[in-house]
Write a structure and sequence with these properties.
Helix content of chain B: 25-40%
Order of helices and strands of chain B: HHEEEHHHE
Radius of gyration of chain A: 22 Å
Number of domains of chain B: 1
Shape of chain A: globular
Distance between the termini of chain A: 46 Å
Structural class of chain A: alpha/beta
Shape of chain B: globular
Oligomer: heterodimer
Number of strands of chain B: 4
CATH architecture of chain B: Alpha-Beta Complex
Strand order of the largest sheet of chain A: 4-10-9-8-7-5-6
CATH class of the largest domain in chain A: Alpha Beta
Strand content of chain B: 15-25%
Number of domains of chain A: 2
Structural class of chain B: alpha+beta
Strand content of chain A: 15-25%
CATH topology of chain B: Sufe protein. Chain: A
Helix content of chain A: 25-40%
CATH class of chain B: Alpha Beta
Number of helices of chain A: 14
Largest sheet of chain A: 7 strands, mixed
Largest interface: A-B, 19 and 23 residues
Radius of gyration of chain B: 14 Å
Chain lengths: 414, 150
């Protein structure tokens, strides 16, 4: 594991698997085959240990006490913020707001930046690939402000129509918000180009990185985006810990979102003043142990190497795509030129829920349904898909098991 | 695969592949739409009720094998029943599929062929699939126009 990152030869999947305690579990008497990391990733021992150690040895509230444990916890919490900063390639830790995850981050931007800058007749642009967390917060904002939500369509391959995206950007567009990687189809969006287009139209660009962060190196400064959100639980970290990156100048000018402890500089009953960045956006006691464990997850991913993980997953994606294409009666949904980590498909004559139940009995965990992306399903005229999603610990043998399971499904519903 | 066969009984597979009474109903005087937001299953149940008797019943929709078979067999079971009998059947069916997964269940005789859904109670995540058509039927009988499993 200490081998240099990015070198394929150094990637030892069996060694990685041994770091995930859950992979020793049996499900319905079979070894667990976990192909649902796009919903939430499993956790390596380093992350589990980190969270436990906080509670056993170093826990107290942060930014408050003068006593030893508060100092230790604050230090670890702020170090975790620094790790998130480096993970995203941000210039400064004050640009990193620790939150529950992507959904909360999108809501923060919609409610704070959006409410200030979006007015009647203005527009917010999203794409047809978005999951509900990058649709509904903007709908709420648009409804409140009398603004309209525009949607850049996707093509049959599951790629955003960039010509339409550019055309839909208008002088009224205040915010363009789009996924880095689609959770339902795995499409990797050209976010740098989309950001440039948004900026050229005078809009700010927000990137939803929930599905990208576990699969490809992120550099917010290279992308040039104004906001970037991700969730720790998809990057092998704990649930309930994630972050929002925002350009300092924008965050400075934004009003607070939630009020409470830690986000204030002073409080009187007449008037309160706000704390400096990023604390202005961190009201209340945060997920202290979760944030610290997210830092441990980022360290862990760094040791394995995101480049090596991406190469391993890409090889698996090609292998799995080949296997599934050879299965009669199966249709892959989403064939973008650039994809990460997702095999989404439908089986002729079998509803995904039935596929999921039969696979579960083989110990295989997949997601079935609309993947919180109903508009994507509508675009392809299907109510739901079965989605097998990949992580660093998956193997070719597990994809072989998936195909064996799918043959059993076909046998049962023949 | 044995416990899977408890869920996917032949009768259920048969009804899911060739659903009975799967069409809109001319002359329907009650109908309701059912929706399971979790999985996207949708069903519409049509009833023709006269003199307090379900004269005819049909359904349309898209869903998994369990929800399709449940709707199909429900429509077969309801024809000729009084409204009170239909509501009682709803209660018996609901008790059957929502029984404690840890316990063995035996279906009361009045459920007849619907007893094949006894296996569903061992798959808690699939209970809503089986019960959606029934909730929708009950909503239609009671004059509602929609039902949801949530």
């Amino acid at each position: 594991m200490s081998a240099p990152a990015g070198t394929k030869a150094a990637f030892d999947v069996e060694a990685i698997r041994r770091e995930f305690p859950v992979l020793e579990e049996k499900v319905h008497g079979r070894p667990l085959v976990y192909l649902d990391s796009a919903a939430s990733a499993q956790k390596p021992r380093a992350v589990i240990d980190a969270e436990r150690e906080v509670y056993e040895r170093a826990y107290s509230n942060v930014h408050r006490g003068v006593h030893h444990l508060s100092v230790v916890a604050t230090d670890a919490y702020e170090k975790a913020r620094g790790k998130v900063r480096r993970f995203l390639g941000a210039a400064a830790s004050r640009e990193i707001v620790c939150l529950r995850g992507t959904t909360e981050a999108v809501n923060l931007v919609a409610q704070s930046y959006g409410r200030k800058h979006v007015g009647a007749g203005d527009e917010v642009l999203v794409t047809g690939l978005e999951h509900h967390s990058n649709i509904v917060p903007w709908q709420l904002l648009c409804e409140e402000k009398g603004a309209s939500l525009r949607v850049a369509p996707i093509d049959d391959a599951g790629e955003v129509d960039l010509v339409a995206f550019e055309r839909l950007l208008s002088p009224r567009t205040r915010i363009a918000s789009f996924a880095h990687v689609s959770n339902a189809l795995g499409t990797v969006n050209p976010v740098r180009r989309m950001t440039e287009l948004a900026h050229a139209a005078g809009a700010v660009a927000m990137v939803d990185g929930a599905q990208a962060a576990p699969h490809l190196p992120v550099d917010v400064q290279a992308i040039g985006c104004d906001f970037y959100a991700f969730s720790g639980h998809k990057v092998y970290g704990p649930s309930g810990a994630g972050a929002l990156y925002g350009k300092a100048a924008l965050l400075e000018a934004m009003p607070p979102w939630q009020g409470g402890g830690d986000m204030i500089a002073s409080v009187t009953f007449e008037k309160s003043t706000w704390n400096e960045l990023p604390y202005k956006f961190e009201a209340g006691t945060p997920n202290i142990a979760g944030a610290i464990a997210l830092g441990a997850a980022i360290d862990w991913v760094g040791r394995v190497g995101l480049g090596a993980i991406a190469a391993h997953e890409h090889e698996l994606l090609l292998y799995g795509t080949g296997l599934l294409e050879d299965l009669p009666g199966l249709r892959l949904v989403g064939s973008a030129r650039e994809k990460a980590g997702v095999l989404s498909f439908v089986l002729d004559g079998v509803h995904p829920h039935d596929v999921g139940t039969v696979l579960d009995h083989e110990g295989i965990a997949v997601r079935t349904g609309h993947h919180c992306a109903q508009p994507v399903m509508d675009r392809f005229g299907i109510p739901a898909t079965t989605r097998a999603s990949l992580a660093c610990f998956n193997t070719r043998e597990e994809l072989d098991a998936l195909v064996r399971g799918l043959r059993k499904v076909q046998e049962m519903f023949r | 695969m044995d416990d899977l066969r408890e869920l996917y009984q032949e009768t259920i597979l048969d009804h899911s592949k060739r659903p009975r009474n799967f069409h809109p109903l001319a002359g329907a005087n009650r109908s309701a739409n059912g929706h399971n937001p979790l999985c996207g299953d949708r069903t519409t149940v049509y009833l023709h009720v006269a003199d307090d008797v379900v004269r005819d019943v049909s359904f349309q929709g898209a869903g998994c094998s369990i929800s399709t078979a449940s709707a199909s067999m429900m429509t077969d079971a309801l024809k000729g029943k009084t409204v009170a009998e239909a509501k009682a059947l709803f209660e018996r069916f609901h008790e059957l599929v929502t029984a404690d997964p840890a316990k063995a269940v035996s279906a009361p005789a009045e459920l007849g062929k619907l007893a094949v859904f006894a296996g569903v109670h061992e798959f808690p995540i699939r209970v809503k699939c089986a019960s959606l058509p029934w909730h929708t039927m009950k909503a239609a009988l009671e004059g509602g126009d929609r039902a949801t499993t949530e």
